[in-house]
Structure formats: C-alpha cells, structure tokens
Amino acid sequence: MAQTDQAAQEDRALLDHLRENVATACRILAQHAIVKGTMGHVSTRVPGTNDILVRGRPPVDKGLRFAEPSSVIRVDSDARPVGATHGVKRVSEIYLHTEVYKRRPDVNSVIHAHAPWTRLCTVCNIPLRPIYFEANPIKMLMDGIPVYERSITLHTLDETRPMLEVMGDKDICLLSRHGVVVAGPSVEETTHRVIELEHIARNNYLAALTGDVGEIPFEDKAEWKRRAILTAERARLGLPDELHPGGSDDDGRGERDQMWTYYVALLETGALTVNESGLGLGL
Ligand SMILES: [Zn+2]
Predict the structure, then answer these.
(1) In angstroms, what is the span from residue 247 Cα to ligand 1's centroid?
(2) Residues near ion ligand 1 (Cβ under 5 Å)
(3) How far, in Å, from the CA of 248 to the mean position of ligand 1?
(4) Which of 37, 71, 111, 118 has its CA 20 to 30 A from that of 54?
C-alpha cells in the first residue's frame, strides 16, 4: 500500500475512533442523568486543527442516550459543516465549543450540559466547595470555578463571547440557571470531570440543607497538594507511588482510563446504582 493511502486510512480510523468516543460520552452522560433528551452536547478536536467533531441533531433524534457515531459531524472553527453531514444539523450553542478550541490549544474536548445538581446549586446560590477529602473535588475546586451570571442559551457569537471572557483559562464555567461548560484534554477526561462535578454539586446542595457547612481544613488541602506533587514527581521519575505502599487505588492505567472503562461497563451492562444517577432516581 502506498504510504499516502496508509496515512489516509489511519486518519480515517482515528476520526472514526473519535466519533465513537463522542457518541459514547453522550450515552454515558445520559445514563448518569446529567443530560436528558436531546439537550447537551459533546465535542472533540480534530487533531492538529481547529476543526471539531460534535454530536449534532440527526433527522430523527432519539436523544443523547441513544447517540450514534453517525450523528457526530465535523465543523470548522467558524462552525461551518465540513464534508457530508447526511442531514445531521449542528447544535444551536455551537460557538461555546468552537470558540473554546480557538482560544485554548491545550483543550481537546468540550462538553456542555444542563447538569441538574450543578444547575440547582446556581439557582440556590450554593457555592461549590471542597467539603470532603477526595482528590477530584479538591483539584477541581482549589482555584475556584467562575460563574457566568446570565441564564440565556448561547446561540450567537455575540451571546457566547461574554461567557468565554468569564471562563478565561479555566476548565469549568458554571452558567447560572442554565448548566455548565467543561473543557479538558480528552473526551474521556472531560466526561469524567462532568460526572465528578455533578457529584460535588449534589454533595454541596445536600450538605447546605443542614445549615452552615465547613470546608475541609486548610492543612488538609495543603497535605493534598503535597501528596499530588510527590505522586507526580515519582511518576515522572518512574518510581512507585510511595503514598500507596500496599497498592494503588487504580489499576495502573491512571484514573482517567480506569474510570472510562468503568463508565463504558455501566453502559454495556445497564448497571447504575441509585447514588450515581442524576437527582437520585434509579434508571
Ligand atoms: Zn445550554
């Protein structure tokens, strides 16, 4: 096979893989009741470009719970469709995807969801705070999460830009009484962040019902930071993680890959515990 043919075939295989990932992320988020019906969207960057692959609206849209790779279309950095779309229309809030990729070369995936617990916290003015000792809440909340105060859906560039200014270089932006925009280095990682954010929001909301809720102590945040730095440094040097002498909490592939495997297994088996679903409803 000529080298150019092989390269083209590899490109096609990569894009197929990314379309599959986007569709899978939609199904995962729907299973967790973080998106419902046809609302919410997942995108990823076409490697080496500002084009993106984004789940659009197929002619007969059964919603994100049933998203297929065929509903994932390619659009350029100005949100114009690239190639055949087979009747799949782009989503109305497309610019909150395209503009983030343009501004952030480090971002390879963007998710917008009307996440119920996260949105409820903005409705009730409940700040998201690290109130229990787990790595993700502390990591995600350490530097604060910006809140865009307008609740309108963002259909145009002019409507989207003020939100982007508030989001800045942060990976998460809450859209008050609307939802959330989450960015990340991959579809897998960004999906995990959205699910973790919902857990954080649910815990904060329920804790706030009891009255004055304290954060974890300052010295424990400092200890978390010390451990994170130590773990990263030992990983960089190829040394075992001395924080977990009896064995790590993950299976050695890293949290992102392990959690993606877990979410896909939940999809495949239909298993989901009550505590893991959106507003506490069994599916
Ligand atoms: Zn929206």
Answers:
(1) 42
(2) 153
(3) 38
(4) 118
**Whether this model's pTM surpasses 0.85:** yes
Residue with tokens 């950095």: 77
Pairing assessment for the beta strands 147-148 and 172-175 based on DSSP bridges:
parallel
Q: How far is the CA of 204 from the centre of ligand 1 (A)?
A: 22
Instruction: Work out the angle at residue 241's Cα, subtended by the Cα atoms of residues 199 and 248, and round it to the nearest 5 degrees.
Output: 50
Beta strand segments in 120-239, E? 147-148, 172-175, 179-184
**From the CA of 135, how far away is ligand 1's center (Å)?**
28
Cα of 179 to ligand 1 centre, how many Å? 6
* pLDDT over 60 at 203, yes or no: yes
CA–CA gap between residue 260 and residue 255 (Å, rounded): 8
Confidence label for 2 from pLDDT (cuts 50, 70 and 90): low
- H or E element at residue 72: strand 72-75
* Cα angle, residue 229 at apex, residues 223 and 235 outer, rounded to 5°: 135
3-state secondary structure of 186: coil
